[in-house]
Amino acid sequence: MAEVRSAVVLLHDKDNFILEKRPDLPGKLAYAGKLQLLGGHAEEGELAIDAAAREIGEETTLSPEPAALEEVWSGEFEGRDRYDQPITREVSVYALALTRLGSETLRLCEQGELVKVAKTPETIEEYNDIMTPFALAVLQGYVKGEQPRFSE
In whole angstroms, how far apart are CA 91 and each of 42, 76, 115? Predict the structure, then answer.
């Protein structure tokens, strides 16, 4: 059974994925300084899709309805916590196309920065060393039309 339930969003526009570069705070954040998907923990009793919409609303200036999200993948992921200890996460991934939101302005509402990564396998590979293993697997699978393959 998973230790943590997470809901994340693969935010994208026509040509790019939009990722968050986490602040470089080792010991305070898992994968400090790395590029990751936006999202976070689901609250007790909260549906994953509702958690994903809520997290995007808390982390950015967007306010998507859950119906705007498209499920991409759901399953367990063996990752690391902020202390670099192994952790199992039950993760649900949803895609959100910015075109579905109209003219909302996208800004990050927390520390870190938004980074655009072109939707090509070659560009994703260029970011390999500065992306979380989870984000890398999800993006690689998404551009190939396949389920993510995880190898932490």
Answer: 9, 6, 22
Which domain CATH number covers 136? 3.90.79.10
Count the domains in the chain. Answer: 1
Q: 10: burial class by Cβ within 10 Å (0-12, 13-18, 19+)? A: buried
pTM of the model: 0.87
In a domain, 149, yes or no: no
Residue 22 lies in a domain: yes
- Tens digits of per-residue pLDDT, 46-84? 999 999 999 999 999 999 999 999 999 999 988 888 888
Residue 20 exposed, middle or buried by CB count within 10 Å (0-12, 13-18, 19+)? buried
